[in-house]
Design a protein that fits this description.
6-stranded antiparallel β-sheet, YdhG-like, alpha+beta, DUF1801 domain-containing protein
């Protein structure tokens, strides 16, 4: 198992702490697992939500929606994972949770591994006028 070199950003902890108990529990599990399996990733609040970056490229994040917590993988449509649902018009895919018990840590670990190995270049999407290029 990898040593966790990156602490969870205090702003992410504050985001989680501001949620209702059940949502906080989901987000605490997600932030812990993401940081555990992507220890090299920078994590911060980006567009008001917790997001993890590799070399400046957004990889994974989560946000509180009205009825659930959405876990989002920016390149997730390329993971070939049937449990992840298409999100938006680019390459993102999501999983939604209403209870921490729904989080399958085995699936999450596999998705996080794929998020490191399969990346589209979101960092330069504006510079490329909305065109995504595959990094890995």
């Amino acid at each position: 198992m990898k040593e966790n070199k990156t602490a969870i950003n205090k702003d992410i902890e504050a985001y989680n702490d501001a949620l209702a108990d059940e949502d906080k529990e989901i987000c605490d599990v997600l932030s812990h697992e993401i940081t555990l399996h992507l220890p090299e990733a920078e994590n911060k609040i980006w567009h008001r939500h917790p997001v993890w970056f590799l070399e400046g490229n957004p990889i994974v994040g989560y946000s509180k929606l009205k009825d659930s917590v959405r876990l989002l993988f920016w390149s997730g449509q390329s993971f070939d994972e049937e449990k992840l649902q298409v999100e938006g018009s680019f390459k993102a895919a999501e999983m939604r949770y209403t209870a921490a018990s729904q989080i399958n840590k085995t699936h999450l670990k596999r998705w996080l591994k794929k998020s490191r190995e399969i990346q589209w270049d979101y960092k330069n999407i504006v510079k490329r006028k909305g065109v995504l290029e595959r990094l890995k």
